[in-house]
Amino acid sequence: MKIQIINGPNLNLLGVREKSIYGDASFETYLETLRQRFANITIDYYQSNIEGEIINKLHEIGFSYDGIVMNAGAYTHTSIAIADAIAAINTPVIEVHISNVHKREEFRHKSMIAANCRGVIAGFGMDSYRLALENLTLK
């Protein structure tokens, strides 16, 4: 089983930016924890601050992977193009967020991509990724 994690803009700064919202651990550190916990599956990781690169990655892996865990960052609330890319592929996508976006600014309450995803997990910190992986690995 192969799962791709895709993180969008500014998530390369986890552990450095807004620690009160996102915590003080880098994603790379947490990724090692995930890979140990889910040792029986391949977990690939991709991060980009560029919308088109995220779309290209979805097209590249969207017909060959078993699942995608996606934190599109701010593109969640703005990108019809990413929503369309998710709709165009066969691989199921779970939208994740570290923070509870519904407790934040009003513009974060609307997801452009959620309707094309299997589900949405938000507000459990980095553990949101684990919860998504558990869902994708259920058969």
From TrEMBL:
Enzyme Commission code: 4.2.1.10
Reactions listed under catalytic activity: 3-dehydroquinate = 3-dehydroshikimate + H2O
PROSITE patterns membership: DEHYDROQUINASE_II
Catalytic site positions: Y22 (proton acceptor), H97 (proton donor)
The entry's keywords: Amino-acid biosynthesis, Aromatic amino acid biosynthesis, Lyase
Pfam families (UniProt xref): DHquinase_II (PF01220)
Domain of life of the organism encoding this protein: Bacteria
Residues of the site described as Transition state stabilizer: R17
GO terms classed as biological process: amino acid biosynthetic process; aromatic amino acid family biosynthetic process; chorismate biosynthetic process; quinate catabolic process
EC class: lyase
Annotated binding of substrate, by residue: N71, H77, D84, I98, S99, R108
Pathway terms, separated by semicolons: Metabolic intermediate biosynthesis; chorismate biosynthesis; chorismate from D-erythrose 4-phosphate and phosphoenolpyruvate: step 3/7
Gene Ontology MF terms: 3-dehydroquinate dehydratase activity
InterPro entries: DHquinase_II (IPR001874), DHquinase_II_CS (IPR018509), DHquinase_II_sf (IPR036441)
HAMAP family according to UniProt: AroQ
Complex and partners: Homododecamer.
Function (record text): Catalyzes a trans-dehydration via an enolate intermediate.
Family the UniProt entry places it in: Belongs to the type-II 3-dehydroquinase family.
Name of the protein in its database record: 3-dehydroquinate dehydratase
Gene symbol of the encoding locus: aroQ
